[in-house]
From TrEMBL, chain A:
GO MF annotations in UniProt: electron transfer activity; flavin adenine dinucleotide binding; succinate dehydrogenase activity
Keyword Oxidoreductase: yes
Region annotated Disordered, chain positions: 1-26
A GO BP entry: anaerobic respiration
Signal peptide start and end residues: none
Keywords (A to Z) from UniProt: Flavoprotein, Oxidoreductase
Domain Fumarate reductase/succinate dehydrogenase flavoprotein-like C-terminal: 459-529
Ranges for domain FAD-dependent oxidoreductase 2 FAD-binding: 34-239
Organism from which the protein derives: Phyllobacterium bourgognense
Protein name (record): Succinate dehydrogenase/fumarate reductase flavoprotein subunit
Lineage: superkingdom: Bacteria
InterPro entries documented for this protein: FAD-dep_OxRdtase_2_FAD-bd, FAD/NAD-bd_sf, Fum_R/Succ_DH_flav-like_C_sf, Fum_Rdtase/Succ_DH_flav-like_C, SdhA/FrdA/AprA
GO cellular component term, pick one: plasma membrane
UniProtKB/TrEMBL annotation, chain B:
Keywords: 4Fe-4S, Iron, Iron-sulfur, Metal-binding
Organism whose genome encodes this protein: Phyllobacterium bourgognense
GO MF terms, alphabetically ordered: 4 iron, 4 sulfur cluster binding; metal ion binding
Protein name (Swiss-Prot/TrEMBL): NAD-dependent dihydropyrimidine dehydrogenase PreA subunit
Highest taxon of source: Bacteria
Domain 4Fe-4S ferredoxin-type, residue spans: 1-30, 31-61
Amino acid sequence: MSRPPSPTLPENSERMSSDRVKSTSNDPLHLQADVLVLGGGPSGAWAALAAAEDGARVVLADKGYLGTSGATAPSNTGTWCVPPGENRAQAVERRWQRTGGLADQRWMLRCVDQAYENLVKLSEWGYLFPQEDDGRLYIANLRGPDYMRFMRRRVLKAGVTVLDHHPALELLSNGDAITGASGVDRQRNRDWSIEAKAVVLATGGCAFHERILGATGLTGDGYLMAAEAGAHLSGMEFTGKYTLAPYETSLNKGLPYRWATFYREDGSPLLDANGEQVSNGIGERERDIAKALIDGPVFARLDHAEPALQDWLRRGQPNCFVPHDRAGIDPFKDLFRITLRAEGTVRGTGGIMLATADCGTGVPGLYVAGDAASRENMTGAVSGGGAVNSSWAIASGWWSGKGASTHARKSARNAFRSISKPLGEAGLRPAGNARANLRTAEIIEAVRAEVIPLEKNYFRDGTTLHTSSERLESLWNDVRQHLHAEGVDRVRSRETASITASARWSLASALARNESRGMHRRGDRPGNDPAFARRILVSGVDAITIGEAQISREGIAS
Amino acid sequence: MIEIVSASRCIECDICVKVCPANVFDAVPDSAPIIARQDDCQTCYLCEIYCPVDALYVAHRAEGHFPITEAEVEERNLFGSYARALGWKRGKAGGTEHDPTHRIRVAAV
Ligand SMILES: Cc1cc2nc3c(=O)[nH]c(=O)nc-3n(C[C@H](O)[C@H](O)[C@H](O)COP(=O)(O)OP(=O)(O)OC[C@H]3O[C@@H](n4cnc5c(N)ncnc54)[C@H](O)[C@@H]3O)c2cc1C
Ligand code: SF4
Ligand code: SF4
C-alpha cells in the first residue's frame, strides 16, 4: 500500500499533530479530503487506518484528543475475541441466545472475523500483549490509554491529518450526498470546514452528561447530525444500562463487584426477596441493588476476592483502585458507598441504523462506526459492554473506512464543484428568536431528570414515560426555537441539542416498545411479547416518526 | 476532578493542555497551565499519566470540587501514583505486557 498524500498540509509530526495547522489568525480553516472521519475513539481510528490503507486522503477531526478521548481511552477493554475455527459459529450462537432475539448472527460472525484479524494486526504492529502461562499472547484485552496512544501513532504514520480539539458542529450536503462537515477549533476559536467525498460518523454514544469515564464529549452529536441528514436511528429504547461505581466517582467499571457483597447504611447485609445476602453485583443481582438504591444509600465490600485475585485486580484494573486509594479506603476490608451510573447508549445499544454491510447509513456519502451506530446487530437488547462493543468498534471502524474510501473513489471527479449547504439546525440556527437567558446547564439538568433516575429509567412504565416525554417536548421546543450561541460556545449549545434530541428519541422508542426486553424493563408490561421481536426505528428531528421495524432486518446484506 | 497543577513540579511543557480530552486547561505564557474549566473534567486521570514530571493531581470526586493541599498529596505520595500503577514513566507508556487482566476474566466466569 502506498502512503497517501496528506491533505493540503505538511508532513505529520509524531506528537501533537494539530500544531502543524498553526495559524496566527482566526481565519477559518478549509481543507479537502477523500474521507473525513468525525471522532477519534477506536472506531474512528480504525476507520481512518482502513481508508488510508486504500490510498484515500483522510482527515480525522476529534472533539478532544485522539489518544485520550472517548470511552475506551480511560478504560481497560475486554474484546470479543474468538480465534478462527469451528468453535466460532458456536460462540456466536451462544452469545446470540443472550441478545433477546434481536441480534443478527451474520453480522456477529463477520464482526468476530474482522476483529480477530485486526487484533492480530495490532500485535504485528508492535502493541505489547501479555502472555498466558503457555506462552501464547493474550490478545483479548486492550488497555485503554496504551491502546489509544498506540492507535494515534499508527494513524499519524499512515499519513492521516489529525485535528485535535476540532469538534464537528454539522454536516454539509449538496442535496444529493453528504459533502463534508464543519465545526470549530475550540483552542484557537476559529471555524473549520472540510469538504469530503465521504464522511464517517465515529462520534460515540450519548451518556447524557453522566460523569462516567470518557463521557464528557459523548453527547450524541453524531445522532443529531445523522438525523438531520435523514438517517434512521434504531434501538434507542435500549438506554437502561447502568454500572456500579464508588459513590460520586467516575469509575463505572463493574468487574470488581463480581466479588462484592452489599450492605445497607446501618451495616446490615442487603437481602434479596428470599432473605439471602446480595453478592456479585454484575449479574442478576443488579436489580436488587437498583431497588435498594432507590430506598437509600448502599455500601459494598470486595470481600469475596482471595489475595491472589486482589493482586490481579489491583494490577489489571488499577484505575478501579485510584478512587479508593485517594479516599483512604481498602475496598477488600472496608465498606464503601456505591452508586449505579447511567450509561445512555454508551453501554446501551441504540444508535444510527446501518443500512448496508459497509456501514452505510442509507444517506449517500455517510457512514457510521462504533457506538455511534446501533449495536443491535451484535448484541440486541442487552449491553455489549465488556466484550462485544470494543470488537464492534474495531470491525465497524474498518468496514466504514473501506466503505467510505470506495465511495470516494467512485464519486465524480468534480465532487468539490457542487455547492454545499450546512444541515445543522437545533443549537445553531434557532427557528424562532434567540433567547439569551436560556442556560444550557439548566436544560441538560432538566433532561437528566427524565432519563437518569433509576425509578424512571431502570424501572420504566408507560405512564412515567409519557410524562417524561411531554416534559422533553417542551424542552425541545425551547432548544429548537430559542437556543443560540456564538464562537466556541456553539459546541455546548449543539451538545445540549444533541442530548435533548437523544433523550426524546429514547423515550419515544421506549413507549413504542410495549413490552420488556433486555435492559428495557417496563413494570406495566413485564415479559417479552413475541410481536416485538423486531427493531424499533426512529427518524426525524422536530417531528419524530416511529418506523417499520422490519426495514432494518431487510437492509442487512452480508 | 482535576484539583492541582503543581507550580513547583511543572516544567511548562503544555502537554496537559493538548491531551486533556475535555479541554480543561489553558496554557499561560511562561507559567504553569491553569485549570480553566474544572467542571468539564471527566475524572479520567489521563492528564496525570501524560505529565512528564507528575505535576498533576486529580481528586476521586467526579461531582464538584474536592479541596486538598499540594502538601497532603506530596506527603501521601499520590503524585504520579496512577502512572506507577500502570507502568507509565515520565509521560511515556508502558506496562501492558504485565497486565494480568486475563486471569481476572478466567476467575470471573
Ligand atoms: C468505563 C467503560 C468501560 C468499558 N469497557 C468495555 C469493555 O471491557 N469491553 C467492551 O467491549 N466495551 C467496553 N466499553 C465500551 C467501549 O469503550 C466503547 O464501545 C468504545 O469506546 C466505542 O468506540 P467509539 O470509537 O465508537 O467511541 P468512543 O471511544 O466513545 O469515541 C468517540 C469519539 O468521538 C468524539 N466526538 C464526539 N462528538 C464529536 C464531535 N461532535 N466532533 C468530533 N468528535 C466528536 C469523542 O471526542 C471521542 O473521541 C466500555 C465503556 C466504558 C465507558
Ligand atoms: S503536562 Fe505537567 S509539566 Fe507539562 S504543563 Fe502540564 S502540568 Fe506542567
Ligand atoms: S482528569 Fe481527564 S478530563 Fe480531567 S483534567 Fe485530567 S485529562 Fe482532563
